[in-house]
Amino acid sequence: MQITINQAANYVDKEVKIGGWLSNKRSSGKIAFLQLRDGTGFMQGVVVKADVGEDIFQIAKSTSQETSLYVTGVIHEDTRSPFGYEMAVTGIEVISEAVDYPITPKEHGTEFLMDHRHLWLRSNRQHAIMKIRNEIIRATYEFFNQEGFLKIDPPILTGSAPEGTTELFHTKYFEEDAFLSQSGQLYMEAAAMAFGKVFSFGPTFRAEKSKTRRHLIEFWMIEPEMAFYKLEDSLKVQENYVAFLVAAVLKNCRLELDRLGRDVSHLEKMVAPFPRITYTEAIELLKKLGFDDIEWGDDFGAPHETAIADNFEKPVFITHYPKAIKPFYMPEDPNNSEVVLCADLIAPEGYGEIIGGSERIHELAILEARMKEFDLDLEAYSWYLDLARYGSVPHSGFGLGLERTVAWISGTEHVRETIPFPRLLNRLYP
Fold first, then answer.
1. Who wins on pLDDT, 315 or 176?
2. Who is most buried in 49, 110, 240, 354, counting CB within 10 A?
């Protein structure tokens, strides 16, 4: 019977056949250990010369790294293995031999690995990170479906900038100017006015010339919008969602976390509610910590976010940022016109902002006035202003960056490892 590696537990003491690749091997005079992978997992195959004969043993010894093959053998429990099972090999059939595979078990530089990203994905570490990414995606759909959200897909090509910035990728849309989407938010607001609670999940693009370990040019965002939700209502959804993601990874990806050496004791603390501090309190905290260069009204950089987060065991919400440094669609705090009703969620351990969100302005006159302050073309945003013209309601939303979240939960230092084919400032290959 042909099975996959992740089904091994169901076939203990039975002879099975597995199609896969040889990721690594070692051998002595009379025994060979084959590290097998098939996409679902990694498992060791043990080839004993006395049991298989000279022909099969020579195939095991001579087969090169990443050669594809069918391996037949009996599954046994193996308490020494993190996977828990191994195969006593009885037969090997080579499908396609790999010659001079470039990524060997030795150390390679980052640029070399990035040039060979299409092959690097096969490695044990990258497999674990992608499995965790997939679990976060799966859990995202589960969470929002059970909370009564409808998935809506906003366009990738747009005629305007949701954030009102110039950091956009320009293209021609026949005779018109168009941009790659930096956020689906405005379209999700329209969807919320139709369906109440909605979320999107798709690619976004930022033409930021940044080389930090937190930035990608193309990344994926989860963007919910909720009608009749105030800021505090939204914060509760956010913390419950993030806690749900962490719990799902802890439950379903423990082997992958172990493979990455992730200290799960940090993740086990990620239960709602999360702490909240205001922007003003955050400035005061930074001053106490010796950051004399930052003043009220400045935006936070990576060192500031890390220093703030280090004071909390869980992700921390920073709320009520200055109006001057936030986008046009965020409403003023009724109690302080200098700040807006918004929050960023900062992950622990130096991973920075993983969520940005706010209430949205829903009064037409206020929205038009703010857009004029930002020197935006009201004609281009006419459809968005229609939302305020025709029965708008108080509403809130947020965006979670998938890759930063994967990096934090998996304990991966750089986001370039958290997406299959990263797009960086100087990298469009492969």
1. 315
2. 354
